[in-house]
Design goal:
Number of helices: 3
Distance between the termini: 49 Å
Helix content: 40-55%
Largest sheet: 2 strands, antiparallel
Order of helices and strands: HHEEH
């Protein structure tokens, strides 16, 4: 397995470590996900306009579209 290193500022390093810790994954896994997943996800995302607000929303074939109606539906069941 190869090792790749790169330089980041102190603030960037702190942010990367914080995000990895929040996701409960290693730094290596965090960086791999950031390097490879966005391209896969972006290729599948579809931009739509919300008919209620006119705001652009993102949709994925694997997930329901998150728009005003779906948020209202989700919140209607919230205690």
């Amino acid at each position: 397995m190869k090792i790749i290193t790169f330089k980041v500022s102190d603030d960037e390093a702190r942010l990367i470590r914080t995000q990895a810790k929040k996701e409960n994954i290693t730094l290596s896994e965090y960086m791999r996900r950031r390097a490879f997943l966005p391209a896969e996800i972006k290729a599948k995302l579809i931009r739509l306009k919300c008919p209620l607000t006119g705001i652009t929303v993102l949709s994925s074939p694997n997930q329901p579209t998150l728009n005003t109606e779906t948020v209202r539906e989700l919140l209607s069941n919230f205690p």
